[in-house]
Design a protein that fits this description.
alpha/beta, Spore Coat Polysaccharide Biosynthesis Protein SpsA, Chain A, 2 domains, eight-stranded mixed beta sheet, three-stranded mixed beta sheet, 26 helices, 13 strands, binds uridine-5'-diphosphate-glucose, binds manganese (II) ion, Cellulose synthase-like protein B3, transmembrane helix, membrane
Length: about 750
């Protein structure tokens, strides 16, 4: 293990990104918002209801900005020093790697195969790794593909290690042609490996089209007569590294599992799958660290496990308090620029407080923390204190919390006490592993309540994360360049809408459940600003209401001829605010290397998501709290770079915004998600038209001086933010607004106009 002598340079260092200039900008914006509010309060009597609504909305924005300023105050991250790790550490700790998949159609098996191959090939001793794939789809096709992948892995893993390949997901690696100058041995092996990979792809494709291979052998018997929602547990050891050697030619253990599902038996989606993974791996390899990735998130940096170890093994910086190391989620498509920005600034800000929030993928957890341990259970040396040990190991206590299977109790006790893992063959555990996948196994235990991935929210990641920080642990954020993991995001359209609605709902569930960041203000060990961070993100969904009102207010005021903004010099406050915010966000985008267009598209996407997806999140949570309906998780459709929309001949590398044909475009279908946006655009257009034809000259002025150019400009700004809906009015096909949606929006607009003008 690591040499803990403090005279040696550290394995990692904390890098602070704090900037006095940015703090000043944040505070100035806060000050401007505040003065605007004061002005509104002073002029309350002279103005009508719109003024009050504006005041309320702006109070919300002020509150949000206050939270953002607190969160962004002291951004930080960790930088690992790999060279020092190699010098000092000779016996690396084991790591169990988890992949979840749930649907062979939405998550094409070849994508899962690539993620798994990239994990099996990481730069880490093979005998210290094990890869577990949980398949909630109970798909023989996925199993077949993984089996084939394990055969290819015996060529792929040694090839990657021999030539120190950086990107170890073959579908990405082989997108780049062979360099003609390479020596002939490499060229030969490269050609051969590529051919073998193409054969693998072919086999998976053939199997997808034609399922007669299913009868091919006893191995698939477990899948016969099963449905994804009704089957018993399947555990298959696809490959076992029996010799336990860690050399470059060896492939780590590789296990396929699919937990039991029965109708009427809740399964808790991904969180349930993760907890089953934790149990099975506990029985088989019981590694002290666990890496989890979504099935589309392949490893893009072969050294990622060692990077994480630099953080965990660093002794001088209280490493034992670090519960998890989170790498940012990056994407091989450009559908997620706004998400990347969110992580770079807000994410780093949170990372500088108590540590980053767990985002569900690309994260290394320590097993003992996932077993519910609190920071108080440690003694000064970082081991579990004798009091805590006695409490936990008391007769029957573990069985009550973890389930009564005695092998589980034994593995948990060993994990908590960090006993070295006894070498045994993992196939011996198959029978017990099946038992702990039973859908009643967790009944009356603490799984999902205080242990493992926590239930009760579709945002299982944020929910689990707050549980960990509330027990006093910290976490670390590492964002290497090039990114450690890459995945995909759906293009802006119905699928993305569903995803953002799910996140919005999931966060609101966190806000209202047992673990709410509002609760336990004094007794929990979470830091104050960290709590603010959780409050801020779990309230995302609620932002839809002020945002929606603010998009409609300028139009209302223009039609009603009442003032929304101050007149004369005071208008300067609003103009400065908008201008500063634009420049600030633009700077944030350009600094990360994004284009002006990407900035504009992202601003637009934020407004569209806030006024539609999150509105539905509020509906979801209201229905849930009233006990009328439950929330349902819909798995996000994944795309491989080759199958990306349009032709297949787009450039394979990260598609630049300017080149990406879908950038800034919004795929629209007949669902209700597209009604609010259409409505907002029509209302603002109607108001601009009214202003254009001089409607105001005939109506009486309300408030200080009625409406004017400022309100009209604001309407134009709103239309620009909802541009895809404006262009959608004139388009047909997937970017056009369906007639039915249009009719509904026109009807609502007519009502709005009558309401605004008529009063
Ligand atoms: O019943 C289920 C549903 C999903 N999954 C898996 O969970 C992962 C994430 O699901 P996905 O539909 O891809 O969600 P995303 O919106 O892409 O996921 C983000 O948001 C989720 C929380 O909403 C987090 O759990 C994820 O890690 C995070 O990447 C995928 O690997 C799925 O296969 C399961 O294993 N079982
Ligand atoms: Mn995803």
């Amino acid at each position: 293990m690591a040499d803990s002598s403090s005279s040696l340079p550290p394995l990692c260092e904390r890098i602070s990104h704090k900037s006095y200039f940015l703090r000043a900008v944040d505070l100035t914006i806060l000050g401007l918002l505040f003065s605007l509010l004061l002005y509104r309060i002073q002029r309350m009597n002279e103005n009508d209801n719109a003024w009050v609504v504006a005041l309320l909305c702006e109070s919300c924005f002020l509150f949000i900005w206050l939270l953002i300023t607190c969160i962004k105050w002291s951004p930080a991250e960790y930088k690992p020093h790999l060279d020092r790790l190699d010098e000092r550490v000779h016996d690396f700790p084991s790591v169990d790697m988890f992949v979840t998949t749930a649907d062979p159609v939405k998550e094409p098996p070849i994508l899962v195969v690539n993620t798994v191959l990239s994990l099996l090939a990481v730069n880490y001793p093979a005998n210290k790794l094990a890869c577990y794939v949980s398949d909630d789809g109970c798909s023989p096709l996925t199993y077949f593909s993984l089996k084939e992948a394990s055969k290819f892995a015996k060529i792929w893993v040694p090839f990657c290690k021999k030539y120190n390949v950086r990107v170890r997901a073959p579908f990405r690696y082989f997108l780049n042609p062979l360099d003609a100058t390479e020596d002939s041995e490499f060229s030969r092996e490269w050609e051969m490996t590529k051919r073998k990979y193409e054969e693998l792809v072919q086999k998976v494709e053939d199997a997808t089209r034609n399922s007669c291979w299913l009868d091919a052998g006893d191995d698939f018997e477990a899948f016969s007569n099963t449905k994804p929602s009704d089957h018993s547990t399947i555990v298959k050891v696809i490959w076992e590294n029996e010799e336990g050697v860690g050399d470059e030619k060896e492939v780590p253990h590789f296990v396929y599992i699919s937990r039991e599902k029965k109708p009427n038996c809740v399964h808790h989606y991904k969180a349930g799958a993760m907890n089953f993974l934790v149990r099975v791996s506990g029985l088989m390899t019981n590694a002290p660290y666990m890496l989890n990735v979504d099935c589309d998130m392949y490893v893009n940096e072969a050294d990622v496990v060692r990077q994480a170890m630099c953080i965990f093994l660093q002794r001088t910086m209280n490493p034992n308090q670090c519960a998890f190391v989170q790498f940012p989620q990056d994407f091989y498509d450009s559908n997620a620029d706004e998400f990347v920005i969110l992580q770079s600034y807000l994410g780093r800000g949170i990372a500088g407080i108590q540590g980053p929030i767990f985002t569900g993928s690309g994260c290394f957890h320590t097993r003992k923390v996932m077993y519910g341990l609190s920071i108080d259970d440690l003694d000064d040396g970082g081991s579990i204190s004798s009091v805590a040990t006695r409490r936990m190991l008391a007769e029957g206590s573990l069985a009550k919390e973890f389930g009564s299977t005695k092998e589980i109790v034994k593995s948990v006790a060993e994990a908590l006490q960090r006993k070295p893992n006894p070498q045994q063959t993992i196939t011996n555990s198959i029978k017990i592993a099946k038992e702990v996948g039973n859908c009643h196994y967790e009944y009356q235990t603490s799984w999902g309540k205080t242990i493992g991935w926590l239930y009760d929210s579709m945002a299982d990641d944020v929910n689990t994360s707050i549980g960990i920080h509330s027990r006093g642990w910290t976490s670390s954020y590492v964002s290497p360049d090039p990114p450690a993991f890459l995945g995909c995001m759906p293009p802006m359209g119905p699928v993305a809408m569903v995803q953002w609605r799910r996140w919005g709902t999931g966060m609101l569930e966190v806000f209202f459940n047992r673990q709410s960041p509002l609760m336990g203000l004094f007794h929990q060990k979470i830091r104050f600003r960290q709590r603010l961070a959780y409050i801020s993100i779990s309230m995302w969904g609620l932002r839809s209401i002020p945002e929606l009102f603010y998009c409609l207010l300028p139009a209302y005021c223009l039609l009603h001829n009442s003032a929304l903004f101050p007149k004369g010099l005071c208008l300067g406050v609003i103009v400065t605010l908008v201008g500063m915010h634009c420049l600030y966000t633009l700077w944030e985008f350009m600094r990360v290397g994004f284009s002006v267009q990407s900035w504009y598209v992202s601003q637009s996407i934020w407004r569209i998501k806030a006024t539609s997806c999150w509105l539905f999140s509020i509906l979801d949570i209201t229905l849930k709290l009233l006990g009328i309906s439950k929330v349902v998780l819909i798995v996000t459709q994944k795309t491989t770079p080759e199958s990306r929309s349009g032709s297949g001949d787009e450039p394979p590398q990260r598609i630049d915004d300017d080149l990406n044909p879908s950038s800034g475009k919004l795929e629209i279908d007949g669902s209700l998600y597209f009604l609010p946006g259409t409505f907002i655009v029509l209302v603002n257009l109607a108001a601009i038209a009214g202003y254009g034809v001089g409607l105001q000259q005939w109506s009486c002025k309300h408030g200080t001086g009625g409406s004017g150019l400022a309100e009209a400009c604001m309407c134009v700004l709103v239309v620009m933010l909802f541009l895809p809906f404006l262009t959608g009015l004139f388009k047909k096909g997937k970017y056009g607004i369906p007639l039915y949606t249009l009719c509904k929006a026109v009807f609502l607009t007519a009502l709005f106009v009558v309401f605004s003008v008529g009063k």
